[in-house]
Write a structure and sequence with these properties.
Blueprint: H1 2-32, H2 34-37, H3 39-51, H4 53-73, H5 75-102
Helix pairs in contact: 1-3, 3-5, 4-5
């Protein structure tokens, strides 16, 4: 029985690590694409960064407050309450990623070129 609990704990830890690393890798990939993709990549990066706290909040909720939560709402509802706490992170992040993916392509901001001032007007002489 002890081996099963340890295996379940390791699988849970692996899933939390993947759930944390995927948005981080997505944010880094979007940051690298900002020059080419402009606003779309910024939206995708913001979406990934918004999704990043989700597994952290979920883990902290389970580690620190699961027992009092189970006493307050029951053992069956505690998991649903934790899911409801993390759902806004997921929905907002996914919405931002979709907005970046589905919005029209934009031109990245071009560096401004310094223009020389206009030449002074030359008056016509008495020729």
């Amino acid at each position: 029985m002890h081996d099963d609990q340890m295996a379940a704990g390791l699988v849970g830890l692996l899933l939390i690590a993947v759930e944390t690393l995927i948005p981080l890798v997505g944010a880094l990939a979007a940051a690298r694409a900002i020059r080419r993709r402009g606003r779309n990549a910024r939206l995708a990066m913001a979406g990934c960064l918004v999704m990043l706290p989700r597994p952290i909040v979920s883990t902290l909720g389970m580690a620190l407050g699961l027992e009092p939560l189970m006493r307050a709402v029951g053992s069956h509802m505690a998991a649903h309450v934790l899911t409801a706490m993390t759902l806004p992170f997921h929905l907002l992040g996914f919405g931002l990623i979709l907005a970046g993916a589905l919005s029209g392509p934009t031109q990245p901001s071009a560096p401004s070129l310094r223009q020389s001032p206009p030449a002074p007007a030359v008056e016509a002489g008495p020729y």
